[in-house]
């Protein structure tokens, strides 16, 4: 067996250039005012599953996901132990994405300019309603996907 190859000098990279490129992309991602800061908190089962706060001194929004929510506890009780990770995933990301979509729509309305705190409270209520149904709905979807029918 014969192997043909060429040996060349190692590629020289400018570490400072790479570092600046990484820093620039990280800053760009967090500079976006519409991208909320999402944190998991333990607020107890009696508190809402998601709270929306405005970060003081900025236009940024903070989403606080209550991982002690009774809705999450109930969703876990309805599923097997093996599905706990899926339940957590659907609950947390489903609520966060729902809130982000509602916030994006609300920010384009005149009501947001007049009373953004009221709009945030209204969205929290809507998200609480979604919290009741998101896990059973999302985890039942794979069984309900349409099947490809064979044409006769």
Key terms:
mainly alpha; 5 helices; 3 strands; extended; 152 residues
Largest sheet: 3 strands, mixed
What is the assembly state of the chains in this entry?
A: single chain
> What's the overall geometry?
extended
Number of helices: 5
Spatial strand order of the main sheet: 1-3-2
What is the average per-residue confidence, as pLDDT, rounded to a whole number?
83
Radius of gyration, rounded? 23 Å
Total number of beta strands: 3
What is the beta-strand fraction? 5-15%
- H/E element string? HEEEHHHH
Helix content: 40-55%
**How many structural domains can be distinguished in the coordinates?**
1
Unreliable spans are none
Structural class: mainly alpha
Terminal CA distance: 55 Å
Provide an overview of this structure.
This protein has five helices and three strands; from the N terminus they run αβββαααα. It has one domain (34-141). 55% of the residues lie in helices and 11% in strands. With 152 residues, it is mainly alpha-helical. The chain has a three-stranded mixed sheet with strand order 1-3-2.
Q: Summary?
A:
The chain has 152 residues and is mainly alpha-helical.
């Amino acid at each position: 067996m014969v192997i043909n190859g060429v040996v060349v000098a190692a590629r020289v990279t400018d570490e400072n250039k790479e570092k600046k490129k990484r820093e620039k992309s990280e800053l760009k991602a967090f500079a976006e005012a519409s991208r909320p800061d999402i944190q998991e908190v333990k607020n107890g089962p009696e508190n809402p599953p998601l709270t929306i706060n405005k970060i003081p001194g900025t236009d940024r929004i903070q989403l606080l996901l209550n991982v002690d929510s009774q809705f999450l506890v109930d969703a876990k009780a309805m599923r097997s132990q093996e599905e706990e990770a899926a339940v957590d995933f659907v609950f947390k990301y489903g609520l966060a994405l729902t809130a982000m979509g509602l916030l994006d729509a609300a920010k384009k309305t005149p009501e947001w300019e007049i009373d953004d705190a009221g709009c945030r409270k209204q969205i929290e209520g809507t998200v609480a309603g979604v919290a009741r149904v998101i896990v059973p709905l999302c985890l039942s979807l794979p069984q309900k996907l349409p099947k490809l029918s064979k044409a006769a």
